Amino acid sequence: MQTKVKTMKMLLGGEWTDAQDTFEVRNPQNNELIALVPQASKEDMLAAIEKADQTYEKMKSWPTHERIKVLNNVVDYMRQHKEEFAQIIASEGSKTITEARGEVKRATQTIQISAEEARRINGETINFDQNEGSEDRVGYYYRFPVGVIGAITPFNDPLNLVAHKIGPAIASGNAIVLKPASVTPLSALKLAEAFVEAGLPEGLLSVIPGPGKEIGDTLVTHSAIQMVTFTGGSEAGERITQIAGAKKVSMELGSNSPVIVLKDADMDDAVSSCVSGSFSAAGQNCIGVQRIYVEKEIYSTFLDSVVDLSSQLNVGDKMDESTDVGPMINEREAIRVENWVEQAVEEGAVIAVGGKRDGAYYSPTVLTNVPSHARISQEEIFGPVVIIESVDDLNEAVEKANNVNYGLQAGVFTNNIQKAFHTIKHMNVGGIMINDSSDYRIDEMPFGGTKNSGIGREGVRYAIESMTEQKVVCFKLKM
Question: Which of 227, 330, 350, 391 to pair with 398, CA 20 to 30 A apart?
C-alpha cells in the first residue's frame, strides 16, 4: 500500500505558511515519497528573524510561570500523540520504530526538564564590601535571555535534538528560529505544532526548512541573532564560527568515540553494550562506539563474542518491531561508508563480519587490523562500523584513544577503581562512562566535548546558562 504524500507548511512567525517552492522528503528504506515540504527562501528566513526580534522586544518580561505552563502543555501534547511522533521519526529517518519510540520518550523528558529548569534560573548575591571602600554597597546578579537564538539541527535525532534547542530557549524566555535537517524536517514541524497548540505566543518560534547554504547562512549571520546553537558536522561547525560574527556560539560536533575494555571487565556486559553502542540508529550517532581497545589477554574472546552478537542483529524493515538495524539516511551515505571500509581494507584492515551494502542498508561491520592513520580510524564514520584493536595495557589504550582530533565521550569497562580513575583523569573527553559504552546519555547532564567535538555544553540546565546572560546590580546606600 502506497503512503499518502503529505503537503506540509512551515511555521513562520507563529503562522503556518507555504513557500513558493517545495522539496521532497523520502523514506530512506525504499525511497518512497512521504511529504512535500516548503523550501524556504532567504526572504522567508529574514521574515522569521524579524518577527522573532519584534516579538522578543515586546515580551522581555514574559513571566516564568507562563513559560512553564506552555512547556507543560507541550509535554501533555507529546504524550497524547506519542505514537504519531514515533511514526514520523521512523518514516523520515533511519531509526526503527522501537528506537523512534525511545526518542519520543526522551524528547518529552527534555521538554519536561525544560519546564522544571525554568523555575531555577537564579542569580546570587555579591559581597561588594569585600573591596575596601565598598562597605556601603550591596547587590546581586541575575540571568536574562540573550534575545533571538538561531538553531540548526541534524537528521539523526530529528525530534530530541530539536527539543534540546527549543525547550531551553523557551524556558529562558528567548525567541528561537530553527532550521531542521532537510532530510528529516517533519519531526521538527510536528514539535512546532505541539508548541502552537500549547499556547506559545506567536513569533517566539519559527521552524524554517530549506537549503542550508541559503537560509542557514542568513540565519547565522543576521545581526538580530544573538546566539547560534548548532549540532552537526565539524566542517559545517568551523564554517559557522568563521561567518557568525560577534555572537555567542554553542556547538555539538562530531566524534570518533573510543571504548576501553580491560581484562577484569564483565565480558558479557561489555560485549552487549559495545554492540548496541556501535550499531543502534545504524551507527549514525555522535556518541556511538567507533573504536574499541581491548587488553590482549581477552582480545580473542571479546572479538569472537562481538562478531557473534553482531551477526545476530536483525537488519530490515524499520517498522517491524523485531528489527535491530534499519537503513542509513540515504544510499549516498551508505556508499560513503562502503568506500571508507574498502579503503581501510586496501590499507590492511580485515572485515571480521559485515562489510556489505544493499541500497541504503549497510550491514553491522566489525574491522580489525586497521592502521592508525586510516581515515576510518581518525575521522567520524557515522555509520554501522566499529574497529576492535588489541592493546598491551591501560596506558596504551588511553594513548590510542586520545590520538584523534575529537573528544566527545568515551567508555571504559573495568572492575578496578584505580584504573577507572586513571581513565577519568587522562582521557581527553567531555564525558566518560564507567562500565558503559560511550553511547550513554541522559538529557539533563552537561553534554559536549573537547577538541573538534564542540564548543560549550548542552543538557537543559547548561543550555539555559548559555542562552542567558548575567546582569550585575549594585546599590550604593546612604548608611
Answer: 350
User: Could you please report the per-residue DSSP string of 374-394?
Assistant: SHHHHS---SSEEEEEEESSH
Which regions of the chain carry the CATH code 3.40.309.10? Answer: 257-451
Residue 211: its pLDDT value, please?
87
Buried b (16+ CB within 10 A) or exposed e, 198-217: bebbebbbbbbbbebeebbb
Query: Catalytic pick from 103, 117, 286, 389?
Result: 286
Q: For 393-408, how does the pLDDT look when each residue is reduced to its tens digit (9 = 90+)?
A: 999 999 999 999 999 9
Mean pLDDT of 230-248: 93
Neighbouring C-alpha atoms within 13 Å toward the C-beta of 273: 24
Q: Which of 85, 80, 73 is nearest to 112 (CA)?
A: 73
How many DSSP H helices and E strands does the chain contain? 15, 25
Q: Which three cell numbers stand for residue 59?
A: 515580551
- Rounded to 5 degrees, φ, ψ at 325 are -135, 125
Give me the torsion for CA of 244, 17, 168, 52, rounded to 10°: 60
- Of the pLDDT bands very low, low, confident and very high (cuts 50, 70, 90), residue 297 is very high
Selection from 366, 273, 281 nearest residue 324 by Cα: 281
pLDDT in tens, 62-80: 999 999 999 999 999 999 9
Q: Taking phi first (over 0 means left), then psi (-120 to 50 degrees means alpha), and beta for anything else, what does residue 149 get?
A: beta
What are the residue ranges of CATH 3.40.605.10 in the chain?
Answer: 6-253+454-472
pLDDT tens for residues 240-268?
999 999 999 999 999 999 999 999 999 99
Residue 252 a catalytic site member: yes
Catalytic residue, chosen from 92, 103, 117, 252, is: 252
The string of pLDDT tens digits covering residues 18-37 is 999 999 999 999 999 999 99
Checking if the pLDDT of 1 tops 80, the result is no
User: Measured between alpha carbons, how far is residue 215 from residues 82, 150, 218, 243 in Å?
Assistant: 30, 11, 5, 14
CATH superfamily of 6-253+454-472: Aldehyde Dehydrogenase; Chain A, domain 1 (3.40.605.10)
Look at residues 273, 279, 247 and name the one whose alpha carbon lies nearest to residue 259. Answer: 273
Residue type, 419: K
Using a cut of 0.70, tell me whether the model's pTM lies above it.
yes
**Would you call 274 a catalytic residue per the annotation?**
no
CB atoms < 10 A from the CB of 64, how many? 14
